[in-house]
Each structure stands twice: as C-alpha cells, then as structure tokens.
Design a protein that fits this description.
With 418 residues, the protein is of the alpha/beta class. The protein has ten helices and 21 strands.
Length: 418
Amino acid sequence: MDRRRAALDRFAKLGLPTAKHEDWRFTNLRALARTDFGVAARPSVDAARAAIDGAPFADLGCPRAVIVDGHFVRELSSVADGIDGVRVIGFARAADEGIDVLPARFGRHADIESDAFNALNTAFARDGLVIHAPDGVVVKRPIHILSVTTTAAGPIATHGRYLIVAGVSSQLTVVETHVATADRPYLTNPVTEIVAGANAHVDHYRVQAESAGGFHIGSVHTWQDRDSVTSTQTLSVGGQMARNQAVVTLGGPGAEANLNGLYLVGDGEHVDNHTTLVHAAERCSSREVYKGVLDGAARAVFHGRIRVERDAQETDSYQTNNNLLLSNEARVNTKPQLEIYADQVKCSHGATIGQMDDDSVFYLRSRGIDRQAAEGMLIYAFVSEVLDGVRVEALREPLEDRLFAWLPQGDVVREALR
C-alpha cells in the first residue's frame, strides 16, 4: 500500500507528459487526456470466456495466463505450478506464499521517479503476474500472457504488471499479447520487468494488436547479469495510438541483448517506439533492428538511445531503424542516439526513411506481376528480417496472417511466397 500511495503521489506531481518533454515531442496525448477512463470490475468467468473466444492471438497452443480487463482469470488459465519447473502465479497469491522474488525484484527496474505511466501503473495495477524460472530450469514451451480488453463498461484503463525472473543458467520464452474485442476508446498501460540471472537465456515477444479505439502505452524493463542473453521482439500491428518503451541494462560482463521491432501503421494511426540500451559492464554486446511500414496519413516515432558507461570497455553495439512510406502523407521522426563514455568500443547506428523502389517494382511487373502484388512482395521482403527473428512458430503464423491482410493483394503475395 505504501508503494502504491508513493507512486500515485509521484504521478500527481509528474502529470501527463506533453510536447515540452523531449521524449514525447512527437506524440500528442490530448485525445487520451480528454477521455474519462474508468476501472473495470472483475469479469465473471463466463464473460471472460466470451471475451477470449475468437480474440486475436488467443490460442497459441502453449500454457496461457489469461488477463481480462486487467484481472488475472485463473479459471481460464492453463498455467499452473510445475510447468517445466517454472512458477506462474498471481501477485496476491505470490505474496501470501512468501515467494521471495516478488519483494526483491518488483519495481526495482521500472522507474517511477521520471516516468508518469510507470508511476500510474504501479499505483493502479490490480493483479499482476510472476513468472519465475529457478536456477538451471529449462522451460521448453513458451508461456503466453494473453491480455484482452473488452470495453464492455465504457472507456476503461487497465494496468497489467508482469515480473519475469530467470534464474542462473535457466532458459525461458514468454509471449505477451495485448488485444481487444471492441473499438470504443480504452487505455492499456502494461509494465513488464525482466531479470535475467547469470548465463540465463530469455526470449520475450510483445505483440500490441489493439483495436481502432485503443491507446496503448507499454514498457519493458530488463536487467541482465553476466553472460546472460535476452531477445526482445516488439510487434505493433494495431491501435489508435501506441507507445512502446524498451529499457535494457547490461549489468554483468559478457551479457548480450537483442532488440527487434516491427510496426505496421495504417491511416490515422500513431506508433512511438523508444528504446534505451545501457552498457554498464565490460564485454557486452547489443544488436537492435526496428522496421516500420506506414500507409495513408500514418505517423511513427523512433528514438533509440545507446549509453556506454565508463567501465563498459570492449562494448559491441549496433542499432538501425528503417522505415518504408507507402504514401506521401505518412511521416516518421527518427532519432538514433549514442552516448559513449568508454574508449574501447565498437558502436554504430543509423536510420533510413524511404519509399518503394520503382526499379524493383518495374522488375517484378516485367515478370507478369501486377503493381499491387509487386509492392506487397517488396513490403514482405522488407519486414522479413524482423519476422525471421520470431522463433515461436505458433506466434509467427498469426503475425503473418495479420501482415498478409494488411498488404496490398496479400492473398496473391502469400500464394507467390509458398
């Protein structure tokens, strides 16, 4: 309760960010601020079941934790103690059972002092989820966190909170999907904290597939010990406005981080990706690839920051952001950034913004492919670098379905690629 009160007080002092905040300069929150959001009551099991039936990305064929309107629905979740040795448990039960990773790790990595939405989440998170892989445990199956917003009671705000802890030499894959079943306005404000112990391997997929009325402001905060490896995939394929923040701290020597992102932004939609990679120890490496495709009057923002601390010698870091504009009305603001305080480093960054290559389109058309199908094939080739990094086949298939539905003549493109 003291933590919640402190977070609420901090949010009251910070207020919602405006364009005067450097990190929010290109993302306008006026529409969000004008909406009166309520808090959803805990749904009945029947209502929750109806919400997830037919929801996008609902069934990936792996153990699943179901969150409906911000509430963990244990009755519909297929996670339980003992899934390949991993614990998946709600915050309330974890506290009752004295699970030590919760007080030791909760809130240590998600900053509430300067981040208003982290503070808001900490104050209003209803029932979070702990996923704990003990030392040496190899979790063979992905664990799926399915978060569904229904908006049945009008505009609502949900604040999902997830803590993922991978012990020493453990291996864990978590898929986090955020979807909705209605187009009325709503806000999802999830915060995920990931702790990777020494020599641990963590793959984390985060799919943001909100409906047309959705505001999504989510963040993932990762801390890595020595020789750990993490891979974070952020995939944005829907919503009125989405902001995805990824913060990774390489805190132990020899740690490795991989950040990939894909955003498909339709007419009138806005996607904002902010990443921060902190190299705080020696001999760490990071690789970051974000790609976006924008159509109509779409808007996108990318701000990627790499910070190499003084003691982080022999750092190897690479970052790129590539954007493909399908219309003259689409706009992207991109800002790759390096802050280097060590002298033995290898760092590079860059960004591109461009339109469809006419020569490539002409080449495909000369092979009997019409213009729309040719453009669809080139878009698929452009995003395939990120899609190829999705190693969970049951997730990749619905992602590709979403992509083909979005592409010009997607059915033709799908058939041509078989």
